[in-house]
Specification:
The complex is a heterodimer of chains A (713) and B (97).
Chain A (H helix, E strand, L loop, with lengths): L1 E2 L28 E6 L5 H9 L3 E5 L6 E8 L5 E6 L11 H11 L7 E7 L3 H11 L6 E6 L1 H6 L2 E3 L1 H8 L3 E3 L8 H13 L2 E2 L7 H15 L5 H9 L10 H16 L9 H21 E3 L6 H9 L5 H45 L4 H19 L2 H17 L1 H15 L7 H9 L1 H7 L6 H10 L6 H15 L3 H26 L9 E4 L8 H35 L17 H13 L7 H12 L3 H13 L10 H12 L4 H14 L4 H41 L1
Parallel strand pairs in A: 1-10, 2-5, 2-6, 6-7, 7-9
Antiparallel strand pairs in A: 3-4, 4-5, 8-11
Chain B lengths: L3 H12 L2 E3 H8 L3 H13 L3 E6 L25 E6 L13
Antiparallel strand pairs in B: 2-3
Classes of the chains: A alpha/beta (713), B alpha+beta (97).
Organism (chain A): Nonomuraea pusilla
GO molecular function (chain A): ferrous iron transmembrane transporter activity; GTP binding; metal ion binding
Protein name (chain A): Ferrous iron transport protein B
């Protein structure tokens, strides 16, 4: 054996007395070759390609780790016993699998004659770390280079010849699935077995090498590979069996010297990190010399990121993208939505009313079916085109990878005002629904952070509120509706940030910031199929959930509207103003008069909105529908009715009043489910504090919007 | 030795804010793959923690009407957060070999 290293203790060949399952038969006296590599590098596929059916799988004696063993006719060389060692990222074991790999590769009892290191060309940096340790084991090594096609698809071309020169061992490209390169690998293994060469280990840096050299003579007196044992002991390898205590103490003293000299730093991982630093530096040199990345310039994805995640353009680009989504949605869809609204308000409701009258249905049934179900569900259905377009656009942004950048940008925005670093995730979830977002606050480590975010979450504008914004924005703002809706989302973010700042500076002063590194997925071309499927999933999910809520709320509102209060009338016969619904809403209406919408319709809608925001539009349709003349020829009536109401309640400033209404809707309690989730996450006391705060903030904000708005609008 | 291993950790610790791996790799003069491998090293040793963000909370997506089509749910275009672990939470250094 040619060797530039101190001689290792005599090694016995690996002859495992295990693996009695299957048909593996060893050839007597055959050399043992082990396959070593990271998980998922194609090692087992290569093992199967080399051994075919001549293999067996079983637990290693004394271990619960399953190991595959087989016979490989490595022509032109001799048949060898091939063992597929469990995948590992390093020879510093962190699991029984990895410990077995370490022990079989370099343990004292049995050692292989040769190592085939399976190296993934697409993840060369990670794979070279393990290879650096394998090269310390004092065994002949042949590298089987897999995944070259995957590396090429990522723009990375690995030159096997140059890699071999850098490593000092043969490198054979293989494609195990197609058995490509298998013969070349057999030839390289035969050569290496015939004329074994122990490669030089990677240098670990001057000071680390001095410490290793100081330990090598004593390590050579053990059955372990001396250099690997020296680095293991320096790295604090307490689990290396059979090592004299004196040697451990000597290694500990060398470690202390490295720390004292400043070569290693406890704050940065101590001596183990110093050794790892040497291995990564070696891996970097090997990579630089043997692999080329296509094109010297950064990829277009990197170039796009420099703009879209930059401090200067990140936030404006995100806001522009979101404005584009809302503007496109409302501009393109408003005419279709209006058409559908007229269809439900007019011919459909009229026909249903006529049909029920012809069937002799009682008035209460007509009220429930036409004003309630058709009116409420019909209003929901008018949002289908809008949701469709919006979900398509959002899915395009998601599938392209941009939304991940938006998360990055949003995170920066949150930090800017002192919110916890990763709080952006629950907030983003909250734009869909506050309930799961409250559960998602558990990703925050500090209880104070969870509490803070739990209190802020109701101000995140969920999808259910969007339908109300869109309805009112299109009725009162026409073509500028998209911008108004976008403004509501901006206001939501501003509200979260402002309330966060207030709470941070009062109740949560001791919350520490954390550093955060994000791995962003690369940009990609959205797939039409994925976009279509996701859009359908979102749309159908929205309709299912909203439909369930609406039908339930419509029935409850109808019931309240049917109970007479203060007048002599039968059930379902009293005017709705004199029903339980009308009476309660009327009683509450004065509270909202200063805000410009002190009307029982608006109050009834806000009341059902307390249960679920999906019900607001349906309640509007239902309460106005109850009052409409039963004239089937009359076209859509909700929009003019809304305009009339806000005109009347605001003293001639309907736009200011409707803005105040939307702001109140944004800021007050999202729904009962959110309250229940808060109760669970932050407890009853803070839930009640939050509830009172939300109602107060909503009322004050709406008051400010109306009072200021009526000066200009 | 002040190499990439130490520099990557130092950059993350010192960031006091958000960064992404591409930026860190550029500053350390290494490839993104190398930076990922180094982050893995520190994650394995308990200095950093890695969490996939965007997954639905353990109890599911609650009443979220968008849950079925949520891209965060199926791992598409997910963001992974890497954070510095507080000292108390770090695992003891493993044995080498």
């Amino acid at each position: 054996m040619r060797d530039g290293l101190p001689a290792a203790a005599p090694a016995r060949l690996l002859t495992p007395p295990c693996c009695d399952e299957g048909r593996g038969r060893e050839v007597a006296g055959a050399p043992t070759v082990v396959l070593v590599g990271n998980p998922n590098v194609g090692k087992s596929t290569l093992f199967n390609a080399l051994t075919g059916a001549r293999q067996a799988v079983g637990n290693w004696p004394g271990k619960t780790v399953r190991v595959a063993r087989g016979t490989w006719d490595a022509a032109p060389g001799p048949a060898v016993t091939l063992i597929d060692l469990p995948g590992t990222y390093s020879l510093e074991p962190r699991s029984p699998d990895e410990e077995l790999t370490r022990d079989l590769l370099c343990g004292a009892e049995r050692r292989p004659g040769l190592v085939v290191a399976v190296v993934d060309a697409a993840n060369l940096a990670r794979n070279l770390y393990l290879l650096a340790q394998v090269l310390e084991a004092g065994l002949p090594v042949v590298v089987a280079l897999t995944m070259a096609d995957v590396a090429a698809s990522r723009g990375l071309r690995v030159d096997p010849g140059r890699l071999s020169a850098e490593l000092g061992v043969p490198v054979v490209p293989v494609v195990p699935r197609r058995r490509e390169g298998v013969d070349d690998l057999a030839a390289a293994v035969a050569d290496a077995l015939r004329d074994p060469v122990v490669p030089s280990p990677p240098p670990l840096g001057e000071q680390a090498e001095q410490a290793v050299a100081a330990l090598l003579p004593a390590c050579a007196a053990t059955p372990w590979p001396p250099r690997l044992l020296a680095t293991a002991l320096l790295g604090g390898g307490a689990d290396v069996p059979g090592v004299p205590e004196e040697l451990r103490e000597r290694a500990a003293r060398q470690g202390e010297l490295l720390l004292a000299s400043g070569a290693a730093d406890d704050e940065y991982g101590g001596v183990p990190a110093l050794l790892a630093e040497g291995r990564y530096a070696w891996a970097h040199r090997v990579l630089s010399a043997s692999a080329e990345r296509r094109g010297a310039a950064p990829s277009w994805s990197d170039r796009a990121d420099r703009v879209l995640t930059s401090r200067l353009f990140g936030v404006p680009a995100f806001l522009l993208a979101m404005w584009g989504v809302f503007a496109a949605t409302t501009t393109f869809v408003a005419p279709v939505q209006d058409l559908l609204g007229r269809l439900f308000d007019g011919p459909l409701s009229g026909s249903a009313r006529d049909l029920l009258a012809a069937l002799g249905a009682p008035p209460w049934l007509t009220g429930l079916a036409v004003d309630g179900l058709i009116g409420g569900v019909g209003q929901l259905l008018t949002f289908v085109p809008l949701m469709l377009v919006m979900f398509v656009l959002l899915t395009l942004l998601e599938d392209s990878g941009y939304m991940a950048r938006a998360a990055f940008v949003a995170d920066r925005l949150m930090r800017l005002v002192g919110l916890p670093g990763r709080a952006f995730l629950p907030i983003i979830v909250g734009f869909g629904c506050n309930v799961p977002a409250l559960s998602a606050t558990r990703i925050l480590g500090h209880p104070g952070q969870r509490l803070l975010l739990g209190l802020l979450m109701p101000y995140v504008s969920c999808t259910a509120r969007l339908t109300v914004y869109v309805l009112l924005a299109t009725v009162f703002f026409g073509r500028a509706g998209g911008t108004v809706v976008f403004g509501m989302y901006l206001l939501s973010v501003t509200l979260v940030v402002t309330m966060g700042l207030v709470l941070r500076r009062t109740l949560f002063r001791d919350l520490a910031q954390e550093s955060l590194l994000l791995e962003l997925p690369p940009y990609r071309m959205p797939s039409a199929r994925v976009v279509a499927v996701r859009t359908w999933q979102k749309l159908s999910g929205f309709l299912r959930t909203a439909g369930t809520v609406i039908v339930g709320t419509v029935a409850a509102v109808w019931l309240l509207a049917a109970v007479p209060v203060g007048v002599e009338a039968e059930f379902g016969q009293a005017p709705v103003e004199h029903s339980a619904l009308g009476a309660v809403s009327d009683a509450l209406a004065p509270v909202f008069e200063p805000l410009g919408f002190g009307d029982w319709h608006a109050v009834a809608a806000l009341s059902t909105g307390f249960v679920a925001k999906e019900a607001v539009v349906a309640t509007m349709a239902q309460t106005y529908g109850s009052q409409e003349p039963k004239d089937s020829s009359r076209p859509g009536t909700l929009a003019p009715a809304l305009r009339d109401t806000f005109e009347a309640t605001s003293g001639g400033h309907p736009v200011a009043a409707v803005l105040a209404f939307m702001v109140f809707l944004l800021a007050y309690t999202p729904c009962m489910a959110t309250l229940a989730a808060q109760w669970q996450e932050i407890g009853p006391r803070f839930t009640l504090i939050g509830l009172v705060t939300q109602l107060s903030v909503a009322w004050l904000l709406a008051l400010a919007v109306f009072r200021v708005g009526r000066i200009f609008l | 030795m002040n190499g990439a291993l130490r520099q990557v950790l130092a950059e993350i610790v010192a960031a006091r804010g958000t960064a992404h791996l591409g930026e860190i790799a550029r500053r350390a003069g290494i490839t993104r793959d190398e930076a990922e491998a180094i982050v893995d090293y520190w994650v394995e040793r308990g200095r950093l923690s890695r969490d996939r963000l965007g997954g639905c909370p353990p109890r599911g997506c609650g009443g979220c009407a968008l849950a079925d089509g949520c891209s965060a749910r199926d791992g598409q275009a997910q963001v992974t957060a890497i954070t510095v672990r507080p000292r108390a939470a770090r695992e003891p250094e493993p044995g080498g070999g």
